[in-house]
Amino acid sequence: MSEAKKAMEKKSDYAEIKDAFSKFIKSWETNNMDGLDEVVAVDTYANFSIFGESCSRDLLKNNLKTRTRKTTYSRFLINNYVCLIEGNRAQQSAGISALMSDSSGAEYAHYCFNGLFANSWVKTEKGWQMQSIRFDLLTDDANILTRDETGFFITVKGTGIYLLWKTGRLLLTRTDSILAQG
């Protein structure tokens, strides 16, 4: 195989893995666990610092569904994506930044976090699938009054003031956190 053809295959594999990782993150963000079937191997091993271990895709889906905070708004952003491919195996890392909020009650609560993924991929007949997943929570930010001991939102005093960034994206202030204590 020519060097040019190998380079094109690697570029295609890189794009496929990046797309598959994006599907994984979108499934988590939207709480659509069936979306993981396409991109996570059945026998995957996952270790989330915030959830613990899962030794199969079904256990991972259950952990993500039951242990992720219940929200009315959720946006995840992938950053610093890197992938190294060797044949039918790949190593990939990426950071995520997440903003989650709950406005379903009389008061408003938010939760933000940043984390780092380090994943192993294998190329199957279905395409690239995650074989092992490691997620480490790096930072989180929420008013401690907005979470109970299980991590779910509770009602707080606050104004629910938010600002719209010039791009139209929601940018939250820490006003809720400050006013909740006052």
Care to give the gist of this entry?
The protein has 182 residues and is of the alpha+beta class.
List keywords for this structure.
182 residues; alpha+beta; 6-stranded mixed sheet; two-stranded antiparallel ribbon; 8 strands; disordered C terminus
Task: Record the SSE blueprint.
Layout: H1 3-30, E1 40-48, E2 52-54, H2 57-67, E3 73-86, E4 89-102, E5 109-124, E6 127-141, E7 162-164, E8 170-172, H3 175-181
Parallel strand pairs: 1-6
Antiparallel strand pairs: 1-2, 3-4, 4-5, 5-6, 7-8
Task: Explain what this protein looks like in three dimensions.
This protein has helices at residues 3-30, 57-67, 175-181, and strands spanning 40-48, 52-54, 73-86, 89-102, 109-124, 127-141, 162-164, 170-172. By secondary structure, the chain is α+β, with helices and mostly antiparallel strands. The model is unreliable at 155-182 (pLDDT under 50).
Low-confidence stretches: 155-182
- Average predicted confidence as pLDDT: 79
The count of helical stretches stands at 3
CA-atom Rg in angstroms: 19 Å
What about the largest sheet?
6 strands, mixed
Order of helices and strands: HEEHEEEEEEH
The number of strands is: 8
Beta-strand content: 35-45%
**Quaternary state, please?**
single chain
Helix content: 25-40%
> How would you sum up the global shape?
elongated
Alpha-carbon distance between the two ends: 69 Å
Query: How does the helix and strand content classify structurally?
Result: alpha+beta
Strand order of the largest sheet: 2-1-6-5-4-3
